[in-house]
């Protein structure tokens, strides 16, 4: 009987010691987890802010209208345009948004004029850079931003001989292709044909991630048509751009 009682108390003692050790281990583990949690909260990685960057980029379609009455000259030429912009918002409800974009157009030369043409009739592959500096009235409506205004743009074009066209090929003016390219480039820089007053309308939405996305419409007026006698219509050289604009979120 005494042996059985000793055995019972021995087992009870072992169980009590086991529970005590388990409780100590659990308490120690909980303390370690809380310490690790506090450390993780203190040294957490930097996240994106909810403010978009002042720098952005855009992509869209650029359209140039032409009024030249020639079979090879379509009423308009279209091209993909890529660009970047910067928003300066140092003035209340007013932004200065300089931008620069790039596009490629095909040009020919006829009747002393450079004109937009189809690829089958092209002579010059023209690299076109459009530098625009508009002043925009800015309206912030919660997450929406509506901007509108205008400024002055400079349309800088440089024509190169199209791939596949030989320098000595003859054009409709009787000039060699290489000479036509020279005349096209000369035309671009005469009579102030590179000066374009601009109009812009833009609607953007700021996402939770801090990115800002929107759409924009730009119009560029051929200012030189006021005095250029070679133009037959006021819309000749008118440019319209439609596209999407994105501003990435900035890091802390």
Verbal overview:
- The chain has 252 residues and is of the alpha+beta class.
- It has helices spanning 2-42, 177-189, and strands at residues 48-52, 55-65, 76-86, 88-91, 94-96, 99-110, 113-116, 124-141, 144-161, 195-206, 212-220, 239-247, 249-251.
- The strands form two sheets. Strands 2-3-6-8-9-10-11-12 form an eight-stranded antiparallel beta barrel.
Jot down its keywords:
single chain, 252 residues, alpha+beta, eight-stranded antiparallel beta barrel, two-stranded antiparallel ribbon, 2 helices, elongated, disordered N terminus
Fold topology:
Elements: H1 2-42, E1 48-52, E2 55-65, E3 76-86, E4 88-91, E5 94-96, E6 99-110, E7 113-116, E8 124-141, E9 144-161, H2 177-189, E10 195-206, E11 212-220, E12 239-247, E13 249-251
Antiparallel strand pairs: 1-13, 2-3, 2-12, 3-6, 4-5, 5-8, 6-7, 6-8, 8-9, 9-10, 10-11, 11-12
Question: Care to give the gist of this entry?
Answer:
With 252 residues, this protein is α+β, with helices and mostly antiparallel strands. The protein has helices at 2-42, 177-189; strands spanning 48-52, 55-65, 76-86, 88-91, 94-96, 99-110, 113-116, 124-141, 144-161, 195-206, 212-220, 239-247, 249-251. The termini are far apart.
């Amino acid at each position: 009987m005494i042996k059985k009682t000793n055995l019972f108390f021995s087992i009870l003692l072992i169980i009590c010691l086991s529970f005590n050790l388990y409780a100590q281990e659990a308490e120690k583990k909980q303390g370690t987890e809380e310490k690790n949690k506090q450390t993780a909260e203190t040294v957490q990685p930097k996240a994106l802010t909810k403010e978009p960057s002042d720098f952005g980029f855009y992509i869209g379609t650029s359209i140039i209208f032409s009024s030249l009455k020639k079979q090879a000259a379509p009423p308009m030429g279209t091209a993909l345009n890529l660009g970047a912009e910067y928003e300066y918002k140092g003035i209340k409800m007013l932004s200065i948004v300089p931008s620069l974009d790039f596009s490629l157009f095909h040009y020919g030369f006829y009747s002393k004029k450079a004109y937009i043409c189809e690829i089958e009739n092209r002579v010059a592959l023209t690299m076109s850079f459009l530098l625009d500096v508009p002043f925009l009235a800015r309206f912030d409506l919660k997450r929406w931003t509506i901007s509108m205004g205008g400024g002055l743009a400079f349309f800088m074009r440089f024509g190169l001989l199209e791939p596949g066209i030989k320098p000595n090929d003859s054009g409709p003016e009787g000039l060699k292709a290489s000479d036509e390219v020279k005349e096209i480039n000369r035309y671009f820089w005469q009579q102030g044909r590179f000066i374009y007053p601009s109009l812009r309308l833009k609607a953007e939405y700021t996402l939770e991630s801090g990115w800002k996305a929107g759409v924009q419409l730009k119009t560029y007026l051929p200012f030189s048509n006021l005095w250029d006698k070679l133009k037959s219509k006021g819309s000749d050289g008118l440019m319209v751009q439609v596209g999407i604009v994105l501003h990435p979120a900035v890091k802390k």
